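In the laboratory, one determines a bound structure by crystallizing the protein with its ligand and collecting diffraction data. In a computational setting the workflow is compressed into a single prediction: the sequence and the ligand go in, and a structural description comes out. We illustrate the idea with alpha-D-galactopyranose.
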Amino acid sequence: MSQPTSATPIANAARRHFAKSFGGDPSLVVSAAGRVNLIGEHVDYNGGEALPIAIQRRTAIAIRRKDGEKVTRINSGGTGGVLKIDHARLARRRKWTDYPAGVLDQLIGAGVDVPGLEVAVASDVPSGGGLSSSAALEVAFDFAVRSLLGLDTEPLALALECQRAERDFVGVPCGAMDQASAACGRAGHALHMAFSPLAVRAVPFAEPILVIDTAVPRSLRGSAYAVRVQECAVALDAIRRVASGVTALAAATLDQVEAAVMPDAPRRRARHVVSECARVRQAVAALELGQPFPGALALASHESLRADYECSSPALDWVVDFAMRQPGVNGARLTGAGWGGCAIAFGSREALLALEEALPASFQQAIGHAPRTWLVTADDGARVEG
Ligand code: GLA
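The predicted complex, in structure-token form:
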């Protein structure tokens, strides 16, 4: 986790919201990153491997202690004004404050005596776009509270605490990839993650990535995500009947997936998980040799997610096809959970800029609304803002 940097515009925005909402200066401003997963989709909750980067779309938190009533007063600068989260009555309300409330629930549950807090949030991670806005908020808030109170901020522990907040409080049965990216990101590096147990290793990665948001909103809570988690559990059970030593779906072989007796849907989900982990290992090996990201692996990943995992969408498939027709683009795939949200494209900076220029008009014509695009590189995870 990085030391203070010169403040980013988003940190300054949090500072301004803070002054407007509470008066004066915060004691501390921190931020955490959104993420793009280069490859390794839907493998984190199956004990596999993934290769995300933290990106320069960030969520900043300005925070100050306010002794007295044990409540968190929090403002995102939106129309909602200052909202109150009562530490003694934490309850899920199905809105954005569930993320900080979930983190408070974890902290208080772990015996931390959390005082009253004044908190302002600013973010340029698009919400519901598949770039992990929720994990960026959880990790930024947890990092802010822990730093303010002088508690441990070890990044992996922070990521796991935030994953528990999302699973136990918000109710999304997610893996740890998003929270680990938000916490552990490193500028100029991709993050080779293993998930059982969680481990992160930074691999040099300086390429630009074009992120294309299909602007078809998607909420994990309402999506088929939980169904996929369930189908993977069914596949693992079936595989364990023929190979009892397999403890996570990602550890199975394709032969075991084919040999086990199970319905078609779980078998296809398992095929995706096992083949995707092999692609992650190949991508990491290429980066370690100083080669560019292998675009063919990105395409194979997208095809597996489309056909076997069934989590793509017409707009995502359209973007991948369009991107691949642009000279100099060598790979593209959906990123994140899917069912809408974002795709990414790999290639030279010139090719990605040309794609960014060419795509919107054709997208508008084919899909019926405007996409959003960002050229990003790997950034730091949670950090104190100067
Ligand atoms: C969401 C989840 C992650 C991961 C991805 C798919 O972003 O939060 O844990 O499962 O989907 O790879």
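Residues 9-205+379-384 form a domain with the Ribosomal Protein S5; domain 2 fold (CATH 3.30.230.10). Keep in mind that any predicted model is a hypothesis to be tested, not a measurement.
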